[in-house]
C-alpha cells in the first residue's frame, strides 16, 4: 500500500483516480509520495522513505529540488495543465491595461448615489477612454505551454505577435501559429512591441530580466505583463519606468508591497491558475505522474531528474538507481548483477545535468544482496526496487 500525503488541498477529481493500492495519510513522515500546491517544503525534513513529490502546478520554487535530487526523491510538476486559465487572465490583463475599465468601474461605484449617473457618465467616460489591442504588437517572451496559447490567442484577436524562446521545443513549435514571428534576439521584442508578456521559469539567468537596462530598450508607453513570477522583474526599476512614462502600465499577478496600490500598476491577487478547471487538471496530472512513477518507475515531467519511460514491467523485477552523472557507473551496475547471476533483460539510462537515472529489468527477483551491492557503489544516491 502506497501512502500519499497532501500538504495542500488537492481536487477530488484527481484524488479519486488513486487505485486501492493507495491510501491518503495525514502523517507526512510515513509518506511514499507527497502532493503539494503552494506549501513551502524548504524548512521541512524530507522523510527517509519519501520517493516522490508532485506539484499540482507549474512553479516549483517552494520545493528544495537539489536536496530532493540528492536523496533520490523525484519532483514532478504539471506543465500545461493550468495553461488555459493563465492565458485567459493574460488576455484580460491586456484589455484592462488598454482601456481604463477599472477606473471607470470605480467611478460608477463612487457615483452610485447620483440620480443623474447615466447623464454624468456621458461626460466622464472620456476620462477612461483607451485604445484597442487589435493591430498592436505583442511580444511573448517564453513559448512554453502558456506562452504558445497567449501568442495564438493574440493572433486571433488581430495583434501582430512576436515570440522569443531560445529553447523552443518541437512540440511548442508545432502548436505555435504560423502567424507568430519567431525572433532570435529578445532585444527585438523590447524595441518593437507595444505589449510585452513574460512566460519563462524563474532561474538565476532569468531573475530580474526586466530591469532598468531592458526597460531602456523598450518603446515609450509600453505595457508590461508578468503572470510568471514577480522576481522576473526588478519592480523598483519598473516603478521608475512608470513614473517617467516609459511604461504605461505594469500588470502583475503577484501582489507585494512594492507594487500594490502604486499608480500605473494593475496587481491581481495571484489568480492565474485559480480556476476550477485548472485545479482539476493539475490534480489529475499530478496523480497520474506519481502513480506511474511509484508503480513502474517511469518519470514524466520531473524538474530534478531526466524523463525516462520503460512502460509496465513484464519481467520478474525492475530496479531504479539514482546516481551522479559520472563515467563508469553503468559498467559497475551491470557487473554487480552479473556477479550475483542475475540476467538483465532491458535497461535504460538518462541524465540531467549532474544527476542520472538508470532503470534495469531483470529476469529474476532482485535480492537484498544485489541492492546492498549497488548502494555501496560510489556516486549512487539511492537504489529502489520498483518490482
Description:
There is one protein chain. This protein has a seven-stranded parallel beta sheet with strand order 8-7-6-9-10-11-12, with helices on both faces. Strands 2-1-3-4-5 form a five-stranded parallel beta sheet. α3 (83-98) packs across α6 (145-156). With 387 residues, the chain is an alpha/beta fold. The chain has 13 helices and 16 strands. The protein starts with a strand and ends with a strand. It has helices spanning 12-15, 65-70, 83-98, 101-110, 117-124, 145-156, 170-175, 186-192, 212-216, 235-244, 276-296, 329-339, 368-375, and strands at residues 2-6, 22-24, 33-36, 52-55, 74-76, 137-141, 160-164, 181-183, 195-198, 222-226, 247-252, 265-267, 317-324, 344-352, 355-362, 380-385. Helices cover 32% and strands 21% of the residues. The model has no long low-confidence stretch (mean pLDDT 96). It is elongated. α1 (12-15) links the parallel β1 and β2.
Give the secondary structure arrangement, pairings included.
Elements: E1 2-6, H1 12-15, E2 22-24, E3 33-36, E4 52-55, H2 65-70, E5 74-76, H3 83-98, H4 101-110, H5 117-124, E6 137-141, H6 145-156, E7 160-164, H7 170-175, E8 181-183, H8 186-192, E9 195-198, H9 212-216, E10 222-226, H10 235-244, E11 247-252, E12 265-267, H11 276-296, E13 317-324, H12 329-339, E14 344-352, E15 355-362, H13 368-375, E16 380-385
Parallel strand pairs: 1-2, 1-3, 3-4, 4-5, 6-7, 6-9, 7-8, 9-10, 10-11, 11-12
Antiparallel strand pairs: 13-15, 13-16, 14-15
Helix pairs in contact: 3-6
Amino acid at each position: 500500500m502506497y501512502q500519499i500525503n497532501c500538504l495542500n488541498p488537492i481536487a477530488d477529481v484527481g484524488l479519486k483516480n488513486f487505485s486501492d493500492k493507495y491510501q491518503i495519510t495525514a502523517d507526512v513522515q510515513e509518506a511514499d509520495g507527497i502532493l503539494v500546491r503552494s506549501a513551502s517544503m524548504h524548512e521541512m525534513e524530507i522523510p527517509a522513505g519519501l520517493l516522490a513529490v508532485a506539484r499540482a502546478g507549474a512553479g516549483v520554487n517552494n520545493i528544495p529540488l537539489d536536496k530532493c535530487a540528492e536523496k533520490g526523491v523525484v519532483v514532478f510538476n504539471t506543465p500545461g495543465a493550468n495553461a488555459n486559465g493563465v492565458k485567459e487572465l493574460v488576455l484580460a490583463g491586456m484589455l484592462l491595461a488598454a482601456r481604463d475599465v477599472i477606473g471607470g468601474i470605480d467611478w460608477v461605484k463612487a457615483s452610485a448615489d447620483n440620480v443623474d449617473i447615466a447623464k454624468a457618465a456621458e461626460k466622464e467616460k472620456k476620462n477612461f477612454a483607451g485604445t484597442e489591442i487589435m493591430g498592436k504588437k505583442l511580444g511573448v517572451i517564453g513559448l512554453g505551454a502558456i506562452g504558445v496559447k497567449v501568442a495564438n490567442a493574440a493572433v486571433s484577436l488581430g495583434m501582430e505577435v512576436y515570440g522569443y524562446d531560445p529553447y523552443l521545443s518541437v512540440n511548442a513549435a508545432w502548436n505555435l501559429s504560423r502567424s507568430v514571428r519567431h525572433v532570435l534576439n529578445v532585444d527585438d521584442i523590447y524595441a518593437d512591441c507595444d505589449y510585452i508578456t513574460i512566460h519563462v521559469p524563474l532561474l538565476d539567468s532569468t531573475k530580474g530580466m526586466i530591469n532598468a537596462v531592458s526597460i531602456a530598450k523598450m518603446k515609450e508607453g509600453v505595457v508590461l505583463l508578468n503572470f510568471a513570477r514577480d522576481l522576473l522583474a526588478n519592480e523598483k526599476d519598473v516603478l521608475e519606468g512608470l513614473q517617467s512614462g516609459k511604461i504605461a502600465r505594469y500588470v502583475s499577478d503577484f501582489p507585494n508591497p512594492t507594487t500594490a496600490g502604486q499608480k500605473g500598476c494593475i496587481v491581481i491577487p495571484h489568480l492565474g491558475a485559480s480556476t476550477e478547471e485548472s485545479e482539476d487538471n493539475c490534480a489529475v496530472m499530478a496523480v497520474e505522474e506519481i502513480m506511474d512513477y511509484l508503480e513502474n518507475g517511469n518519470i514524466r515531467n520531473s524538474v530534478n531528474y531526466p524523463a525516462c519511460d520503460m512502460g509496465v514491467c513484464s519481467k520478474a523485477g525492475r530496479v531504479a538507481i539514482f546516481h551522479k552523472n559520472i563515467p563508469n557507473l553503468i559498467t559497475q551496475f551491470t557487473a554487480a548483477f552479473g556477479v550475483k547471476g542475475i540476467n538483465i533483460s532491458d535497461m535504460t539510462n538518462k541524465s540531467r545535468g549532474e544527476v542520472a537515472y538508470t532503470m534495469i529489468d531483470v529476469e529474476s527477483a532482485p535480492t537484498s544482496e544485489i541492492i546492498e551491492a549497488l548502494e555501496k557503489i560510489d556516486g549512487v544516491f539511492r537504489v529502489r526496487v520498483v518490482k
